[in-house]
User: Fold this.
Amino acid sequence: MPGFEIFGDEERKEVNEVLETGVLFRYGFDQARNNHWKARTFEKELAGKIGAGFCHLCSSGTAALSIALAACGVGVGDEVIVPPFTFVATIEGVMSAGAVPVFADIDETLCLDPESLEKVLTPRTKAVLVVHMCGSMAEIASIRNFCEKKGLILMEDACQALGGAFHGKFLGTFGKVGCFSFDAVKTVTCGEGGCIVTDDPKVYEIADAYADHGHDHVGSDRGAEGHVIMGLNFRISELNAAVGLAQLRKLDRILQIQRAHKTKLKEALGQIMGLEFRKIPDEKGDSATFLSFLLPEASIAARVSGELASAGVDGCFYWYHNNWHYIRQWEHIRGVKSAAALPLTLFKTRPDYENLNLAQSDGIMSRTISMLIKLSWTGEEIAQRIDKMKAVLRPYF
Ligand SMILES: *Cc1c(COP(=O)(O)O)cnc(C)c1O
Assistant:
């Protein structure tokens, strides 16, 4: 997953071009910037790469979620169906929009189970925010069908799935809007950054304005620009965009290496009879940032997680015990422990987050371990990793 592993001369060149002009900002200074438009170029190239109509680059993936929710008209009292397995930012975004997150179960894809959506549907449901976790995809076609049938907005948090695709169509382009992150540990990094993509010109227009105090970006005099709506400041700096631009141009190579490394590991571990892998609806479209596997029981998964660490197999995550990615450890979110009162606390209809029935998700997450696929591994390191993993896993099968 990590683009930081391949930071090099290309990134330095892009950043230096910005430093030489002194225009560290994405808007304005048209003369002084010497024709360098890093953020704008990034947007054009990313949209072209994944086949999206529009892209707006912003300061983080979390910002992208806030922008996406605003641009889709999701606000106070609206219910948004979300998975319990995601990075906390997904939920923070929904809550800070004034909306109410409603948790549905995940399935063996480790993403929202299309079958679980109906059960949490209410007259207040406005959107489904699907998260493509750990580099691979949800059953996105079924989820999209469900949304179309029920008249719901489909949104995608594809922060962890840049370059992933389902039957040739890139993740992030299935819904009304898709979100990406370019933070420290993502496939492509800007240092900090994120973006939204959409095919809808209206959604793009609102996103573009909302992320910059409502500026309509018409004309070449910033001070004279109009303001159609209120916004906030979620701008990215031109320096961060420059890093991202060089990284984005390495995406194909990143995906190729990840897929090659993952294939080797998965084939070798596949020889262990009974070891189950995460379900991947379109294996070819997996961005291969992680290899996720399921152990027969929760107690075994917890033990294997410890044993892999002791054996020196680094980069393995047992999400069930993780503070940031699964609802079980999110007592701050379940208790809505915010710095100041959030709009959703005014709604008596909000779910009782302390007493949700997510038995299906618990059953899957308590058995799942994910291993980060690194770009820098040598063939020998992969072979050693396979040997160590087999030694840990074999006794349980
Ligand atoms: C990283 C991530 C985010 C947030 O991105 P930031 O750039 O760190 O704000 C949101 N959702 C998911 C699934 C993520 O992995």
